[in-house]
Specification:
about 375 residues, Rossmann fold, about 55% helix, 15 helices, alpha/beta
Length: about 375
């Protein structure tokens, strides 16, 4: 009975390591393409957001490949995410598929809830083996994020465009193939060394934060690879969240009491002092918290996402003066239009920096 789950960034790689370590038959959905989007859009209610449509498209493609058990996000909360699994299950049944849908309610039982689901899928494998496989999956997740952070710093200053991307593609494949911790360490150290050796220009790149709704921030297909496009424009990206960080703060109790999410929420408190669902609260806090560190912020939001619409309307009215570009992501978003907006935004930031430098020199 093969298991599958929707794609989002590189999350399939650590889960593949977890499932393979326990002998669970895992079907990885194909990479997100226009077909994924078309399938999801065709069978979704029009007003639903792009994360719903893309994940539905993932599940359809996985079912076509023979998947039987569908691991999907679920749970309780203000965002519509908690209702995805019920709506998607009904849609898939109406299409004619037979399956078992297993909602993963991260907000309820956190790490223990996920472990119980994994144990059931593994036919009650020993807890020691489950924890060992889970730790190796987490190690792969950390490795992927560490390499990606490095790519964000190298991409805007590389002398030959595309070099960092080629190294990153090889790194992702090597991390995916790594059979053990030793192989994983070799893959990461080799990739980081390659990135350190990339020829660079002398430019001082703009620094732009990427914040917004979790899925569209982490899934390049849904945001038309905005991080790569900013890198081509000579911009260093600072993403607000990585999957490894989300896992650390969402699944485990932090013994040191350090919770980046709470820190961001406190920063937003003068303008928004309660959870509005999704990542809207954190989007406002990211602007407030990093106004003195970044040149600008790109705010990614699914079209019709109420939490991010609220955040979008608050951001221009905070005291912190930092330009924000909101990009609404859905099936209608086109690359040429997005690139035009990014180019104009970066031009604005460069002009702002020149004016600030001239003023400082005059003083």
């Amino acid at each position: 009975m093969p298991v599958t789950m929707p794609r989002m960034g590189n999350i399939h790689i650590p889960f593949k390591a977890l499932f393979e370590g326990l002998g669970i038959d895992y079907i990885m959905p194909p990479p997100n393409t226009q077909r994924t989007m078309t399938l999801g859009t065709k069978h979704s209610p029009e007003g639903l957001c792009i994360p719903f449509k893309m994940t539905l498209g993932n599940l359809i493609e996985a079912l076509e490949l023979g998947a039987d058990k569908l691991l999907v996000p679920g749970g309780y909360g203000i965002c519509r995410l908690g209702y995805y699994f019920k709506t998607q299950a009904q849609i898939l049944q109406d299409i004619g598929y037979s399956f078992e849908m297993i909602p993963v309610g991260v907000s309820e039982r956190k790490f223990l809830g996920i472990m119980e689901i994994v144990r059931r899928l593994s036919n009650n494998a020993p807890w020691a083996k489950i924890v060992s496989s889970f730790r190796f999956g987490i190690a792969k997740m950390n490795a992927l994020d560490n390499v990606e952070r490095k790519v964000h710093r190298v991409r805007p200053v590389e002398a030959v465009r595309g070099t960092a991307n080629r190294i990153y593609a090889r790194a992702v494949a090597a991390i995916d193939r790594a059979p053990d911790y030793r192989g994983l360490k070799t893959a990461v150290s080799g990739s980081l060394a390659e990135l350190d050796g990339v020829a660079r220009n002398e430019a001082r790149p703009m620094v732009v934060g990427i914040t917004g709704e979790f899925y569209v921030v982490l899934e390049p297909f849904s945001n038309l690879d905005v991080e790569n496009e900013l890198g081509k424009l000579g911009v260093e990206v600072r993403r607000s969240t990585f999957i490894s960080e989300w896992m650390k703060f969402s699944l485990f109790l932090n013994p040191l009491g350090i919770n980046e999410k709470k820190r961001v929420q406190r920063a937003a408190a003068p303008y928004l002092n309660r959870d509005i669902g999704g990542d809207g609260w954190e989007s406002v806090g990211e602007k407030v918290l990093h106004a003195g560190k970044y040149d600008g912020i790109v705010h990614l939001a699914p079209f019709t996402c109420m939490p991010e619409i609220i955040a979008q309307n608050i951001m221009p009215h905070t005291e912190e003066q930092i330009p924000v570009l909101t990009i609404l992501c859905d099936e209608q978003l086109a690359k040429p239009g997005m690139l035009t907006r990014l180019e104009a935004f970066v031009d604005l930031l460069e002009r702002k920096r020149r004016v600030a430098a001239g003023t400082a020199k005059a003083n």
